[in-house]
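haha ok so turns out i had the wrong file open the whole time. this is the CORRECT one, sorry everyone. sequence first:
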Amino acid sequence: MDFLSNIVQQVITIIYHFISSFGVANYGVAIVVMTILVKLLLYPLSKKQIESTKAMMELQPKMKAIQEKYKDDKQRLNMELANLYKSEGVNPLAGCLPLVVQMPIMIGIFYGIRDFQYEGSTSFLWMESIAAPDPTYILPVLSALTTFIQSKQTMPDTGNPQNKIMLYFMPLFIGYISLTFPAGLVLYWVVMNIMQIGQQALMNKEAAK
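then structure:
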């Protein structure tokens, strides 16, 4: 993982020096630019993962009914579930590969930004230093809010209590841990969420055509 985090730090440094040549010597801007580039590059994988996850969640009521009906016949249960996937055109493993590919990259970005050694000014917008937690709590609040919106977009209302718990728990958890993370890392998370929200809106628009 050190290899990936080192690459992330090098990319941030390269972007920082590039935008500095245009008079924008700011690490916050460099992190925003890097996040946008990463999300654009990973868009095909993100799209595949979101589509698969959403399709599986929409099948949950039907899957639950089958599991209840054939709970005493495991062989018939597996057969009926396979038939359900086939009839609905859903591959339960389709979302795994994109996630497997993206996870090391996301983890590398996490450690790369968290442990980044800044040179020069680290101020950004209202913050004196993105190397320290945001003292105004604005970024942690934004991290929780954007996580909620992004989750709401991809989580269909199936009436499942567990889904509702996760819908509200995860944003609160993300907001809570963001209180202690360097602001640069939380900035990355917020921008990533905003990009994801935009990409999801685009996907929904295309699906509605």
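Residues 2-208 form one domain.
again sry for the mixup
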